[in-house]
What does this fold into?
Amino acid sequence: MAKKKQRSSKPRPRPATPAVEPATPVDAAPKKSKRSARVAPVRAPAFWFGFEVAWAKLATARVVMFALLAIDALLQIRHAPRYGAGDFNVAHLPFLDGAAPGRTGYEVGQLLLAYLFVLAALGVATRVIVPVSAAIYAWLYFGSHLDSYQHHYLVALLLGIASFVPWARPARAEPSTPVRSWAVRLLLVQLGIMYLWAAISKMDPLWLDGRTLGAQLGGSLRSLVDSTVGLKVVAVLVLVVELVLAATVWLRPAWRVAAPLGILFHAGILVADLEIGLFAVLMLGLYVLVVPDRVWIALARTEKAAMQLVQRLAGRRGGVAWIAAVAAAIAVGILSRFEHGLAVALASCAILAAIAVAVWWRGTGMSSAAPLAHVCALLLWLVVDRASTVAYDYYRFWGSSQRRLGDHGQAERAYRKLIDLAPDDALGHYQLGRVLIATRRAADGIAELRTAQTLEPARARAFVEEARWLALDGKRTEAIERAKEAVRVEPSSAEARQLLQALTSNKRPPKPVASRDDDAESP
Amino acid sequence: MLRRVNRVLQRLLELGPVAHVRALASSWHGRVILLVVVGGLALPIHYYMPAHRDPHDERYAWRMFSPMRMAKCDAKVTKNGAPLDPYTEFHEAWVTLAKRGRFHVIERMGEHLCAKYPHTDITFDLTCKYLDDTTEHYGGFNMCTVPYL
It folds into this structure.
């Protein structure tokens, strides 16, 4: 794992200049093997082992990258109901087929990841937490083809490499203090490799003539491209930019080219509104490592007062913060709307306790850094939960997939949770009504449909469903009345009109229209 | 800037490729570097090899937004000749992967259906339309006896 830089007992004053490429190769490999006592030592390549970045940059990269990953992990929770649905899975790696995450495993895994990423962002126990996070992330990604996005593969690789980065603050480090890390160079080289292959894949007539880009680009950016240079020119430009980034992103002297180019490129992807989730933002976060060190050193100096305050807060000793952190975990767990929020929040206390034991064991004093990070991690859950539709989507997608797959028990459970979460939302009542009718609990089902009708008085679907059940139950007159009501509230509903027509002409009610399943998850 | 770039590149190559690799291989840190760099450069090659039978499977090849990603496939499933709604058998995310033409996923879906409905004929008919307006047809066999597309 990330190895602490060897230092002499007396700290040497560091130059207040940005880290630069070392002038000479590093004399020895980072760790000598037993054999090295007998054979001549091998010169470690300075390109790797002499690579240094300013502490300000490394700290900024840590905060930005891991915070973004934490948010991404929480947003992924809405996909959890796919996992294990219908007892079917295909793992990326065959040996993981039997150990792939199910719905609960995936949700708990992402909650845990979000928690661990925040701890890592705030520099708590990074030597353990980053590799553990990498392992959990790899399990979730490689466990199923359901997650086939290549950016998740990239994140899995980068986390693996990041496990070797010395993210912890070196003793008495100033913003300009150089931190030597071969793993940071490797992160950048990995990005270069990705750009190279991405460019190679675009050396295809279908890309170069703009057709592929045209099929994907939308929104205002598409209008801009169409009205200016055209798709063909942009397609060639994308290829050129990727080739330039492949050659420059890992070379410090070329960062002056790579940083603005890469940031513009990924900001463009962000504006293009492609279906890649947070990936463009994550890539922008990675460019913290490419922006020249002096930018971060200058920024750290201007924010000195704020940084000192954080350090003072984190450096404070006392058990009160630890007790408050446990109380906060319980409070957040109760307030969290994620299915296993409370359980994982309590489990996070076990992680905090393990950190406390490690701190006590090392005798470094019980600072407030870990409990503060713990509270921040749990607050992030709460913020993302309340500011997004993740929890709502989770139950909605869970209910819809289980209903379609015929597991009415699970569908009912999911829709009841959805109603607990959003009692004034018609969808939960409508779908629960359908499930209850399908399981021969018509009275309860009709009551749910009536609630849905009240909550969405301008939509026909709950009226249609009730009319359909009345017709199947032999109550044709009442069915016609409800179908008329359906047409009245939503005259544009073809389904309502067809049903009314079928009922008035004494025909069987038509089968439900698939498009009415508007709670299907779009992968 | 070019002079500085040149200096870094010289540093990268100063040991010579063989000595550089040997130096890396002499420590565990270096072996990690070798694994990532060599693996990273070599792994995507598999997509371009003739042995790679599924053109729609672009995993590990960094082919984001590629022309192949734009292929649209129609996956028809039948059970003893009668149409079978895949959405009632698999989560919609799997059906979407099938519609992207992923052979391995489709074959496993076939295997799953054959196990679920023993002594039946399960067929997957995959018709893919590509960005250059060509169309390819895959499958059409009973997947319980020929488990490959």
Q: What stands out?
A: The mean pLDDT of chain B is 92. The first helix of chain B runs from residue 2 to 13. The radius of gyration of chain B is 23 Å.
